[in-house]
Amino acid sequence: ISTKTVIEKSIEKSKELRSNIKTLIKDTTVRENIYTIPNFLTMTRLIAAPIVGYLIVQQQVLWALGLFTYSCITDFVDGYIARRFNLKTVIGTIIDPMADKSLMIICTLCLTQAGQLPLYLAVLILGRDILLGLSAIYYRYISLPPPKTFMRFFDFSIASAEVHPTNISKVNTGLQMLYIGSCVVKAVLVSYLGDHYTSIFLEAMSWFELVVASTTILSGLSYVFSKDAVKILTK
């Protein structure tokens, strides 16, 4: 056998070996398109959250209410677009509740500091969200395909787990938004109401406060006992 033939066969075998290695180590990670309109709207809500808090602290009530209303509307719109045009993404199931919770947490802290929201309710809302946040980190870690690196952990195009809000959680989010929106305008609204109507409004807010506290507790428990709240997408 000539030297040339040996070299050619060696090159051929080398190419075959490389091809086999690539097949064995082929990246089977599930990725998806995260650059969608619903995700863009959700990101604007994430950005708006600290601005709303700043406006509350600065007592810019009307601007705070306007931006808060924008966040509530886009929360509905991005979900509708995702369902209507089949633009649902796994990262959307994560950052959508994250945007809601960012707004809730920031507004809760700022309103509590301003004396517009009772401390015990703030503890319930924040305590529940902290526990859910820690749970999200845990499920992301255990569901992430190896290698479990820092960069891959925050690469949200890698779909590893889905979060499905429970029904009571959806109701609780809506009630919290409505209650916090009411707290934002309360300081201004009572100045335009007479003593009689102010008393009725404050009494209604007290009952509303108890309803929100109850749904907050129930929604937290629903994630603990629901089997469908988190779905692992990887083995």
TrEMBL record:
Q: Which Gene3D superfamilies match?
A: 1.20.120.1760
In its UniProt record, a GO molecular function of this protein is: CDP-diacylglycerol-glycerol-3-phosphate 3-phosphatidyltransferase activity
Biological process, per Gene Ontology: cardiolipin biosynthetic process; intracellular monoatomic ion homeostasis; mitochondrial membrane organization; protein targeting to membrane
Q: Which UniProt keywords apply?
A: Lipid biosynthesis, Lipid metabolism, Membrane, Phospholipid biosynthesis, Phospholipid metabolism, Transferase, Transmembrane, Transmembrane helix
Q: Which domain of life is it from?
A: Eukaryota
Transmembrane region positions? 206-225
**Any one Gene Ontology cellular component term annotated for this protein:** membrane
Location(s) in or outside the cell: Membrane
Q: How does it sit in the membrane?
A: Multi-pass membrane protein
Look up keyword Lipid metabolism and say if it applies. yes
The record's listing under InterPro entries reads: CDP-alcohol_PTase-I, CDP-OH_P_trans, CDP-OH_PTrfase_TM_dom, CDP_ALCOHOL_P_TRANSF_CS, Phosphatidylglycerol_P_synth
State the similarity comment: Belongs to the CDP-alcohol phosphatidyltransferase class-I family.
Query: What's the name of the protein?
Result: CDP-diacylglycerol--glycerol-3-phosphate 3-phosphatidyltransferase
What organism does the record attribute this protein to?
Pachysolen tannophilus NRRL Y-2460
